[in-house]
């Protein structure tokens, strides 16, 4: 996360001019001094002649990283392995229901307008900083969840005469539950920049989940942005931020139902009801290698995320 303090504009604000300056000619602005000079974790210095470079095997990445660290800009180690956990609870809209290709929602035979979906996902993420402001990563994970919703069944359009007979109840109001598990794969990229102790970033990722209850996969696109501050508060050395997340999950679940001598294919077309929610989070930098991240989401979609990262 310290990488968020690398300015995209670093390269257009006079790197060549800085190179020609001598140390004696430089006037150091107090506001650009290192945030925590006694901390084991260095921070963005702004304009500090002392080098923050490490002599490591992985110094071939990021590209232009050596130039930046020689001018006092602190880069994260280029490679990372993260173990993560995320829990989400959010509503989905159900737009269509088909049984063996026959629309059963429009005539009111079966109606499900909304489902509440709750899931937990465990992930392994591998990432690399290609440029000081550009990160790419891959995701492997396992998710399990449960969808609950009200179900209204009305058989009168199918059996109009039978349903008019006394004692026949052709309308049923009930609830349903779908439990599922899935293997998750995906990829993503992050663009980050900052100024002194403040940063901003945008993240984009796509994932595919092989649901065990459906013969089609679920696909999701997630875009998030964050702005924040890095420094020291008491015993906390790390980063604090606020942000927002957009999720685009539009999918058709094809659920095969075995009814003995035949199999019914129930297709449910659903999409995220509230694409946006708000984020607040923080990261504790234990040292240059290890960090712990926690983030919480608010709004119609509620989320909790916890990550342990090792950088090398």
Overview of the structural elements:
With 312 residues, the protein is mainly β. It contains 3 helices and 14 strands. The chain has helices spanning 15-20, 65-69, 160-164, and strands spanning 79-99, 102-103, 110-111, 114-131, 134-154, 171-195, 198-211, 218-233, 236-248, 250-258, 263-272, 276-285, 290-298, 302-311. The chain has a 10-stranded antiparallel beta barrel with strand order 1-4-5-6-7-8-9-12-13-14. A hairpin with a 6-residue loop joins β7 (198-211) and β8 (218-233). The longest helix has 6 residues, at 15-20. The radius of gyration is 26 Å and the shape is elongated. The two termini are 14 Å apart. The relative contact order is 0.17. The model is unreliable at 1-42 (pLDDT under 50).
What is the 3D shape? elongated
Total helices: the number is: 3
Average pLDDT for all residues = 81
The fraction of residues in strands falls at over 45%
- Helical fraction equals under 10%
How many strands, what sense, and barrel or not for the largest sheet? 10 strands, antiparallel, barrel
Report how far the terminal alpha carbons are from each other: 14 Å
Please report the total strand number as a whole number: 14
Protein structure class? mainly beta
What is the gyration radius calculated from CA atoms? 26 Å
Order of helices and strands: HHEEEEEHEEEEEEEEE
Which residues sit in consecutive blocks of at least 5 with pLDDT less than 50? 1-42
Strand order of the largest sheet: 1-4-5-6-7-8-9-12-13-14
């Amino acid at each position: 996360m310290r990488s968020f303090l690398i300015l995209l504009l670093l390269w257009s604000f006079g790197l060549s001019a800085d190179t020609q300056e001598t140390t004696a000619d430089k006037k150091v602005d107090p506001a650009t001094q290192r945030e925590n000079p006694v901390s084991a974790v260095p921070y963005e210095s702004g304009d500090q002649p002392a080098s923050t470079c490490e002599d490591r095997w992985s110094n071939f990445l990021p590209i232009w990283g050596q130039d930046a660290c020689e001018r006092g800009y602190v880069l994260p180690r280029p490679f990372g392995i993260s173990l993560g956990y995320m829990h989400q609870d959010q509503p989905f809209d159900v737009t269509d229901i088909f049984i063996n290709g026959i629309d059963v929602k429009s005539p009111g035979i079966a109606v499900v307008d909304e489902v509440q979906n709750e899931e937990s996902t465990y992930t392994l993420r591998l990432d690399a900083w290609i440029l000081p402001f550009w990160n790419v990563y891959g995701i492997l994970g396992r998710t399990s969840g449960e969808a609950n919703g009200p179900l209204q069944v009305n058989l009168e359009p199918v059996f109009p005469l039978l349903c008019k007979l006394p004692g026949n109840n052709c309308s049923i109001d009930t609830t349903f539950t779908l439990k599922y598990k899935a293997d998750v794969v995906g990829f993503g990229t992050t663009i980050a920049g900052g100024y002194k102790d403040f940063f901003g970033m945008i993240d984009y990722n796509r994932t595919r989940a092989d649901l065990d209850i459906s013969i089609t996969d679920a696909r999701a696109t997630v875009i998030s942005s964050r702005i924040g501050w890095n420094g020291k508060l008491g015993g906390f050395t790390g980063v604090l931020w606020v942000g927002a997340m957009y999720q685009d999950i539009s999918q058709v679940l094809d659920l095969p139902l075995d009814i003995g001598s035949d199999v019914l294919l129930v297709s449910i077309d659903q999409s995220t009801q509230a694409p946006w929610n708000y984020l607040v989070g923080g990261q504790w930098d234990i040292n240059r290698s290890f960090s712990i991240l926690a983030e919480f989401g608010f709004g119609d979609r509620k989320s909790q995320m916890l990550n342990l990262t090792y950088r090398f």
